[in-house]
C-alpha cells in the first residue's frame, strides 16, 4: 500500500517524504527500512543517537499517530536513513498489537513513501570527549547504539565496548554488522548476553554470557577507567543497569540514557528538598527573578535554570506530571498555563490549543501560573 505524500500528512515544513529503498528482515522480530528522500535530495545530517518522528496513518481523528524510531545506520551516509523496527505483539489477551510497528512490518513495501520529521533528540554520542565508551542496550534498544558504533569505528580512536542483552540468537538483530564494525580497528569489542539461549546458540557459540548482565559481568569486562556510558532499552533493563552502574560508583553525569517504551525515573535516590518554596503565598521576586506557581498544589517557587525544563522543575518540587518522550513530541506532558509566558528550547512537533504548553521543552519567560 503506497502512502501518498499529498494526503495532508505532510502538513508542517519539518515533515518530508521518505521513500522506502529497501526492507530487510534483521531477526524474527526486527525489520530495517532503508529510506531516501522522495524528491531525490540529500538528507539532513544526523548525530548518532537521534531519531525520526513518523506520521503513521490511523483511525485517530487527526488521521495519524506519531511514532519515534531511532536512526540505526551510519551518520556518514547522507543519501539514506535506516530505522530498525521491532514488531510489537499484543500486551495481553484481548489487547491490540502495536499499531505502527505492525503497519510498517505488514503494509509498507519498497517504493512506498513515509512521512517523517527530524532528525531530533539530545541522546547523542559525545564526539568531543576522548573518554572510552560503553554502549549498553537491551532488545531493540540497540538501534541508536549501532549508529554510535558506526561513528566510533569510523571517526574516532576511542576504546568502546558494545554490550547487548536479548532473549536469544533468533531475536538478536544486526549482529553481523556490529561484528564487522568492531573488527575495523583495535580498541573495539562486543559482549552479547542471552537470557535464554537456544541449543543452536550454544553450538554456534553466539553469546558470551547467559542470564542477565550483573555487577560481576561488568567488573569482568571493564578495567578501572573513566568511561562514558550510554544506555537504551526497555524500562526494567534500564533501571537494572543504571542502578548497577551507580552501585559501582559511576557518576550520574557519566550515564546518558534513552527509553524504548514508557519512560520512568531511573534514579531512586531521594532528591534534595528545594530551597524554601513558599506554599500558599505569592513571594515578591527579586530583580530579574521569575516565579513559578503550581496552582493546584499550592506551591510557589523561584525558577532555577539548572532544572532545564518546567517538567524537571515540577519534579524537583515533588510533583509528578505525566510524561513520555521529554522531547516535545508525544504531548503527554501537556498542561494548562493560567498566566504568564514561556519559551520553547525544542519546538513542539504539533500546534497546541490556546492556553496549553508542553512542560518537557519549555522555560518560563515571565512569572507563570500553571494548572498543576
Q: Descriptors for this entry?
A:
372 residues; alpha/beta; Elongation Factor Tu (Ef-tu), domain 3; Rossmann fold; Ubiquitin-like (UB roll); 6-stranded antiparallel β-sheet; 6-stranded parallel β-sheet; 17% helix; globular; disordered N terminus
Question: How would you briefly describe this protein structure?
Answer:
The protein is of the alpha/beta class.
Overview of this protein structure:
- By secondary structure, this protein is of the alpha/beta class.
- It has three domains: 15-120, Translation factors (Elongation Factor Tu (Ef-tu), domain 3, Beta Barrel); 133-259, 3-Layer(aba) Sandwich (Rossmann fold), CATH 3.40.50.80; 278-370, Beta-grasp domain (Ubiquitin-like (UB roll)).
- Helix content is 17%, strand content 29%.
- The chain contains seven helices and 20 strands.
- The chain has helices at 99-107, 142-155, 175-182, 199-204, 215-221, 235-247, 310-316, and strands spanning 15-25, 30-37, 51-57, 64-70, 81-86, 113-120, 133-138, 160-166, 188-194, 209-210, 228-233, 255-259, 278-279, 291-294, 299-302, 334-339, 342-344, 356-358, 362-364, 368-370.
- The strands form four sheets. Strands 4-3-6-1-2-5 form a six-stranded antiparallel β-sheet, covered by helices on one side. Strands 10-9-8-7-11-12 form a six-stranded parallel β-sheet, with helices on both faces.
- The model is unreliable at 1-13 and 270-287 (pLDDT under 50).
Amino acid at each position: 500500500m503506497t502512502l501518498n505524500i499529498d494526503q495532508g500528512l505532510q502538513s508542517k515544513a519539518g515533515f518530508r517524504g521518505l521513500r522506502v529503498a529497501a526492507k530487510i528482515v534483521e531477526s524474527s522480530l526486527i525489520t530495517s527500512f532503508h529510506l531516501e528522500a522522495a524528491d531525490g535530495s540529500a538528507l539532513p545530517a544526523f548525530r548518532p543517537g537521534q531519531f525520526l518522528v513518523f506520521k503513521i496513518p490511523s483511525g485517530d481523528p487527526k488521521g495519524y499517530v506519531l511514532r519515534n524510531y531511532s536512526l540505526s545506520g551510519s551518520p556518514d551516509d547522507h543519501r539514506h536513513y535506516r530505522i530498525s523496527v521491532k514488531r510489537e505483539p499484543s500486551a495481553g489477551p484481548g489487547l491490540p498489537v502495536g499499531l505502527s510497528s505492525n503497519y510498517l512490518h505488514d503494509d509498507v513495501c519498497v517504493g512506498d513513501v513515509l512521512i517523517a520529521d527530524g532528525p531530533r533528540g539530545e541522546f547523542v554520542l559525545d564526539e568531543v570527549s576522548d573518554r572510552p565508551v560503553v554502549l549498553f542496550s537491551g532488545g531493540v534498544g540497540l538501534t541508536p547504539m549501532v549508529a554510535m558504533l558506526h561513528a566510533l569505528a569510523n571517526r574516532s580512536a576511542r576504546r568502546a565496548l558494545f554490550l547487548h542483552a536479548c532473549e536469544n540468537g533468533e531475536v538478536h538483530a544486526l549482529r553481523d554488522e556490529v561484528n564487522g564494525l568492531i573488527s575495523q580497528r583495535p580498541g573495539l569489542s562486543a559482549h552479547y548476553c542471552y537470557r535464554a539461549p537456544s541449543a543452536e546458540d550454544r553450538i554456534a557459540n553466539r553469546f558470551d554470557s547467559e542470564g542477565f548482565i550483573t555487577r560481576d559481568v561488568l567488573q569482568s569486562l571493564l578495567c578501572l577507567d573513566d568511561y562514558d556510558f550510554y544506555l537504551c532499552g526497555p524500562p526494567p533493563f534500564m533501571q537494572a543497569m543504571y542502578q548497577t552502574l551507580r552501585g559501582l560508583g559511576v557518576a550520574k553525569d557519566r550515564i546518558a540514557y534513552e527509553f524504548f517504551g514508557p519512560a520512568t525515573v531511573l534514579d531512586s535516590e531521594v532528591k534534595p528538598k528545594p530551597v524554601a518554596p513558599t506554599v500558599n503565598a505569592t513571594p515578591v521576586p527579586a530583580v530579574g527573578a521569575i516565579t513559578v506557581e503550581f496552582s493546584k498544589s499550592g506551591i510557589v517557587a523561584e525558577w532555577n535554570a539548572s532544572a532545564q525544563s518546567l517538567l524537571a522543575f515540577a519534579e524537583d518540587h515533588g510533583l509528578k506530571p505525566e510524561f513520555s518522550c521529554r522531547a516535545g513530541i508525544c504531548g503527554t506532558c501537556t498542561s494548562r498555563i493560567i498566566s504568564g509566558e514561556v519559551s520553547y528550547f525544542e519546538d513542539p512537533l504539533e500546534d497546541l490549543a490556546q492556553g496549553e504548553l508542553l512542560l518537557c521543552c519549555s522555560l518560563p519567560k515571565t512569572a507563570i501560573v500553571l494548572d498543576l
